[in-house]
Specification:
The protein is mainly β and 123 residues long. The protein has a single domain, classed as YVTN repeat-like/Quinoprotein amine dehydrogenase (Methylamine Dehydrogenase, Chain H). 0% of the residues lie in helices and 59% in strands. The chain contains no helices and 11 strands. It starts with a strand and ends in an 8-residue tail after the last strand. The mean pLDDT is 91.
Length: 123
């Protein structure tokens, strides 16, 4: 779970249905249900960009955009190595840090750093 304290929203991973649920903390209602790849187990929120990141051990980081208090959209399922299930967001630089524990099935120990890019235009 991650929280947008400014807009009173909680972001919840629901592995059974493979969805990211956006929940209004004031009204106790679900606002959005967005699809996730298998294995989503870590969620982080960058309030400066309005970005939600979900690490999925199946080999993806799902990236979502908050386009307002009640409007959310999926930007992409960014491919990464499998078994990435830790994330950290630096809210000052908007960089995303992800430790990898394997590369193509072989053990490794490394930190990968991603820079956020501008989201595609709304459709």
């Amino acid at each position: 779970m991650a929280v947008d304290s400014e807009h009173h929203r909680a972001f919840l991973l629901c592995n059974g249905t493979r969805t990211l649920t956006v929940f209004a903390l004031d009204t106790h209602e679900a606002i959005a249900h967005l699809p996730l790849p298998p294995g989503a187990d870590v969620l982080k929120f960058d309030p400066g960009l309005g970005r939600i990141y979900a690490a999925c051990s199946s080999g993806f980081i799902s990236v979502f955009q908050a386009d307002g208090k009640d409007r959310y959209r999926k930007l992409e399922d960014f491919p990464v190595q499998k078994m990435v299930h830790s994330l950290a967001v630096d809210t000052a630089t908007h960089r995303l840090y992800t430790p990898e524990q394997e590369e193509n099935g072989q053990p490794v120990a490394r930190m990968v750093v991603y820079d956020a890019i501008e989201p595609p235009p709304k459709r």
